[in-house]
Design a protein that fits this description.
The structure holds 3 protein chains of 3 kinds. By secondary structure, chain A is of the alpha+beta class. Chain A has 2 helices and 10 strands, in the order βββαββββαβββ. Chain B is α/β, with parallel strands linked by helices. Chain B has 3 domains: 192 residues, FAD/NAD(P)-binding domain; 133 residues, FAD/NAD(P)-binding domain (3-Layer(bba) Sandwich); 98 residues, Immunoglobulin-like. Helix content of chain B is 21%, strand content 37%. Chain B is built from 9 helices and 28 strands. In chain B, strands 1, 2, 5, 6, 7, 8 and 20 form a 7-stranded mixed β-sheet that branches. Chain B has a 5-stranded parallel β-sheet with strand order 10-18-12-13-14. Chain C has 2 domains: 378 residues, 3-Layer(bba) Sandwich (FAD/NAD(P)-binding domain), CATH 3.50.50; 101 residues, BFD-like [2Fe-2S]-binding domain (Arc Repressor Mutant, subunit A, Orthogonal Bundle). Helix content of chain C is 28%, strand content 23%. Chain C contains 12 helices and 23 strands. In chain C, the strands form 5 sheets. In chain C, strands 1, 2, 9, 10, 11, 12, 19 and 20 form an 8-stranded mixed β-sheet that branches. In chain C, strands 13, 15, 16, 17 and 18 form a 5-stranded antiparallel β-sheet that branches. In chain C, α1 crosses α8. The radius of gyration of chain C is 23 Å and the shape is globular. Classes of the chains: A alpha+beta, B alpha/beta, C alpha+beta. At the B-C interface, β6, β7, β8, α3 and α4 of B face α7, β18, α9, α12 and β23 of C.
């Protein structure tokens, strides 16, 4: 069935209104984008939305009880809740270094979950 | 009481203070200290675990902690003195800073220059005067973010959010991902205050309704929040009573405005601008008080931390020049005025001699959403030049450069004005 | 239970109950004060206009009239002994263009009858000189120099703490469910924490005094709550107000008061509307509008720009609209201290004296204690001392050096002392009342998470168990990751 959808591209602050004509997952036409990234973004938003997942992971013996983490690449939006549950199960031992891999290949997406800060061990006063 | 002397005291170790301190140091002024009230540096960034930071400054997309880490590293590499868990209680016009911490007790620091980088606080439910009760479960979005991302506690599980600024949108997604049921985000205006990207990725992705032209008109629940009354408003933002509905909720988050935190500035006799809530400054970010500078959210609420960094580096440069006796005021002082459709422009004046400077960035906000705009600069009523943008939103700060060359060519100018005009039908 | 039997059990830890406890602690008596909530002063005592009235407004033919002036005088000494924040700033009943100014003369007469000192009618010039921002339509006012402002919850707390220092036992979170009698004599009370025996019970249960009175068959007391709504402003405000300012009362209402508070805020309110439920503490759009419009009549320049909070309190009004301080007729040993609405705060010590008298008439022996601790040490109040004084405190104890609440300048030590005090602060609001942490312009936005953690650490409980005020008011409900699996559609 032929559909037309207009999406605000967020690849850059311009925010072009990109209109995609598609039949299910088959892209017929894209217009309104000022650059190729816009076309890519719009295509992805129709066919398979993916997002970076920023969240936290529980830490043992750390200066803080949580360490912020993110996925190294975008993962399918429909996997978000499962991903949160998977990350929620984990408890990792301090110290942590920024970029350290917490979970490898999260849910077979080829994205790793990495720490986004250094987190030293807890100092017992 | 310990008495210390320092060349530069930076009040606040968030992105503004960090960038300013490093710049001061790189200009040869190494006697700097950062006073930070929290247990670690970074200001609000460590709890902003989402990405979207650094697109302009680094050309990369970073999370808040990652962005902060870079500047914390800068400070550490330069071995700049930092006092954590240290609260500044007083600043005088002659640059005496009174602060306290557990290890050293009370200290009085006589500074040659002070950089105010205290950031801002959130507007509260009480300040809005929302009728109803005062139960647990009503908190500002930033405090909820602190609980969720730093302390490790989720305030509740049935959430309504008032205010569609970025903090509200981000927390909608955050609470939803951590397992709460986010019922709605209400926005009293007919447009959202946050970035479009956040509306898409925080609300649309999760089917969280965005109710524009709506506000919370009652808080219900004696000990714990039980429900909120949500009501549509008219063009004058007055509630339309027939549209009220009761929504069950145990948590109400407020994202209804940031207020630059200038109590210390007032103590130092710094003059404030009613429109920004922050100090009146020249392009070097110096306030009306000799040797007291201001940058970051304490000066005006920024939308992107990248601008905070740029601004704070300017402040750092000039504070160092001030210390190095290289701070020359020109004979003419140019007032910078916010013209049509402009809420405010920072800096409010231009008055410094700067041979190497190529441009002065003017930061401003449009007062109402406009499409296809021309940002026009006038010198004493004569048009200098203009910039075009596809749209202007109050939630997104605009930065336009004033070229030094242009400045140099203007001899007797006393006022530069910025207008933002919507182009006639295109 | 620490004791088997007490001489007197006081039901209710509001201003009246705390005042009675304080008074009775001067005698050789075993006294138990029972409070159903996690802190004293959580009812009307914490939500009122915080005024110590001069006494001209109270009807001389009622108990209110007899006790207000007496209490007002006693309070001046008590606040010094017990280190309670108080300022005798005086009050003005202000008559505007169009008001019936003869009311001022009536109040002057009533005040004289009640024995109030220093009352006089002042003219427009005087008023404008002393209140420069007042509406220029002002014509004349009744000036009462003996009126003052106080921190009402600290007033109650201080009396309770001093009572404890003098041997009174206080049990929080202990609700009286029934009163035991035998052969028309009081025997004790039944609570949710067990039974306690005593031959005398003082009913100071505020909004619930009628319900407690019914437990011994006293039907005459009937409490109909009357709500008052308020706005409170930050320290930074448009302008200063120097006295407690009343408009001329009409038949319908006393009008909206504008007053500074001892803590340097500005307070405007209250309204006066009967409500159905004793739990209806909601502010309303109509009520808040009434407050602001009323205040603006006196101060046309007033805006809402610097307001930081709205709140409401309920007056425990008896149908007689007077205090009901009397011994029960049908039962021996039961003293009612009920219907305590304005000027209850101002009359507190006099009410306590009367309650003691009534107990004595019922047969309780009041033998004066030899070594009464009269004074309560002034707690550290960082928010109002100088930097030098703060430095001195920090030298004495390092925990004074760690500032937790930025807006009101409250140190870690003050917070810990509050949690570990003689009447321990167990909740975030209890800490706020004792220390001011969270009472400032950011309303706990910054210090909230920190105070919650400190309470958890000091009490040895989880942060998810820390409450705001009463049960089921937990600050945070879940540990992170605790809700996962429940988001989106069920798996």
């Amino acid at each position: 069935m032929l559909e037309k959808q207009t999406i605000t591209c967020v690849a850059c602050p311009k925010g072009c209104e990109v209109t995609v004509e598609h039949d299910g997952d088959e892209i017929i036409d894209i217009m309104g984008n000022a650059c190729p990234q816009g076309a890519d973004y719009a295509k992805e938003e129709i066919v398979a939305k993916t997002r970076i997942l920023p969240t936290t992971v529980r830490v043992k013996n750390g200066a803080l009880p949580l360490c912020p983490v993110k996925t190294t690449k975008q993962i399918p939006l429909e996997l978000m809740d499962k991903a949160m549950a998977k990350i929620g199960e984990k408890e990792i031992e301090a110290p942590l270094k920024m970029g350290q891999i917490i979970i490898e290949n999260l849910l077979d997406t080829e994205a790793n979950v990495v720490a986004t800060r250094d987190l030293p061990k807890k100092i017992n006063a | 009481m310990i008495k210390i002397e320092k060349d530069v005291v930076v009040i606040g170790g968030g992105p503004a203070g960090l960038a300013a301190a490093a710049k001061v140091y790189d200009n040869g002024v190494k006697d700097v200290v950062i006073l930070e009230r929290d247990f670690e540096l970074g200001g609000i960034l460590p709890q902003c675990i989402h990405n979207g930071f650094g697109l302009h400054h680094f050309g990369e997309e970073l999370t808040g902690p990652e962005y902060s880490q870079r500047f914390e590293n800068d400070v550490e590499e330069r071995d700049i003195e930092v006092k954590l868990n240290t609260m500044v209680l007083d600043v005088t016009a002659d640059k005496k800073v009174f602060a306290m911490n557990k290890d050293q007790g009370a200290m009085e620091i006589q500074a040659k220059a002070v950089i105010l980088a205290m950031g801002c606080r959130e507007r509260t439910a009480g300040a809005l005067g929302i009728p109803g009760t005062r139960p647990a479960g009503v908190l500002t979005a930033g405090t909820a973010q602190r609980f969720t991302n730093i302390e490790g506690y989720v305030p509740g599980e049935k959430v309504v959010i008032l205010g569609s600024g970025d903090i509200g949108l981000i927390m909608a997604r955050r609470m939803r991902l951590e397992g709460a049921d986010v019922k709605a985000v209400c926005e009293i205006l007919p447009y959202t205050g946050g970035l479009t990207r956040n509306v898409v990725q925080c609300l649309e992705d999760y089917d969280i309704p965005l109710k524009l032209n709506h506000t919370v008109t009652k808080i219900i629940g004696n000990d714990r929040l039980e429900a909120v009354e949500i009501t549509e408003v008219d063009e004058n933002m007055k509630p339309i009573p027939e549209t009220s509905e009761i929504v069950e909720a145990d948590t109400l988050l407020l994202s209804v405005g940031l207020i630059p935190e200038n109590e210390l500035s007032k103590k130092a006799e710094v003059a404030l601008d009613d429109r920004t809530g922050g100090p009146v400054v020249n392009e070097g970010r110096e306030t009306n008080v000799d040797g007291i500078f201001a940058c970051g959210n304490v000066l005006h609420v920024h939308d992107l931390v990248d601008w905070v960094t740029e601004e704070s580096q300017i402040a750092g440069d000039w504070a160092a020049k001030y210390i190095n006796d290289d701070y020359k005021r020109s004979e003419k002082k140019i007032d910078v005025k916010a013209g049509e459709n402009v809420s405010y422009v920072i800096p409010q004046s231009i008055e410094l001699e700067a041979e190497d400077r190529k441009r002065i960035p003017l930061y401003m906000r449009v007062s109402t959403p406009l499409t296809a705009i021309d940002i026009e600069l006038y010198a004493d009523g004569e048009k200098l030049y203009s910039f075009s943008e596809p749209f202007g939103k109050p939630g997104e700060m605009i930065s336009v450069p004033l070229a030094q060359k242009t400045l140099n060519d203007l001899d007797e100018v006393s006022e530069i004005r910025v207008d933002i005009i919507e182009k006639e039908g295109e | 239970m620490s004791k088997n039997k007490y001489d007197v059990i006081i039901v209710g830890g509001g201003i009246s109950g705390c005042a009675v406890a304080w008074k009775l602690s001067r005698y050789n008596l075993d006294v138990l004060l029972l409070e159903k909530d996690p802190d004293v002063a959580t009812g009307t005592t914490k939500a009122n206009t915080a005024i110590i009235h001069a006494g001209y407004n109270a009807d001389p033919n009622k108990q209110k009239g007899r006790l207000n002036t007496k209490g007002n005088v006693q309070i001046k000494d008590i606040v010094k002994d017990l280190s309670v924040p108080f300022e005798e700033i005086g009050s003005l009943v202000v008559g505007m263009e169009g008001d019936d100014l003869s009311v001022l003369d009536e109040l002057l007469e009533k005040g004289k009858k009640n024995g109030v000192e220093g009352l006089e009618i002042v003219d427009r010039e005087w008023i404008i000189e002393n209140e420069p921002h007042i509406n220029r339509d002002v014509k004349a006012a009744l000036w009462a120099p003996t009126a003052g402002i106080i921190t009402p919850w600290e007033f109650a707390l201080a009396m309770a703490e001093n009572a404890v220092a003098n041997g009174v036992e206080v049990k929080l979170e202990t609700e009286v469910l029934d009163v035991y009698t035998e052969a028309d004599k009081v025997k004790g009370v039944k609570t949710n924490q067990g039974d306690f025996a005593a031959d005398y019970v003082v009913n100071a249960a505020g909004l619930y005094a009628d319900e407690v009175a019914k437990m011994v068959g006293v039907e005459k007391i009937d409490i109909h709550p009357r709500k008052g709504e308020y706005y409170i402003y930050d320290h930074a405000k448009d302008f200063e107000i120097n006295h407690v300012l009343f408009p001329i009362p009409t038949k319908i209402s006393k009008g909206i008061v504008c007053t500074p508070t001892v803590e340097h805020n500005l307070l405007i309110g209250p309204t006066s509307d009967f409500v159905d439920s004793k739990e209806d503490l909601a502010t309303t759009t109509e009520g808040l509008n009434k407050v602001f419009n009323g205040a603006q009549k006196m101060f046309p320049e007033l805006t809402l720009k610097d307001s930081i909070r709205v709140f409401a309190g309920l007056r425990a009004a008896d149908t007689t609209e007077d205090f009901v301080i009397e011994a029960a007729e049908n039962v021996h040993g039961f003293i009612n201290v009920a219907g305590i609405q304005s000027p209850g705060l101002s009359s507190a010590p006099a009410i306590a004296d009367l309650a003691a008298e009534l107990l004595s008439e019922q047969g309780l022996e009041l033998k004066e204690k030899k070594n009464v601790i009269e004074k309560r040490e002034e707690p550290a109040r960082f928010y109002e001392i100088s930097n030098e004084e703060r430095a001195a405190y920090a030298e004495e104890d390092k925990e004074y050096g760690q500032i937790i609440c930025r807006c009101e300048t409250v140190s870690l030590k003050e917070i810990k002392d509050a949690i570990n005090g003689p009447i321990p602060a167990r909740t975030v609001n209890a800490v706020k009342r004792r220390t001011r942490a969270g009472a400032g312009r950011c309303q706990g936005g910054f210090c909230g998470p920190r105070v919650t953690q400190i309470i958890a650490d000091e009490l040895g409980i989880k942060p998810t168990e820390v409450r705001l005020e009463k049960d089921n008011s937990n600050i945070v409900e879940h540990k992170i990751k605790g809700l996962l699996g429940s988001q989106g559609d069920a798996e």
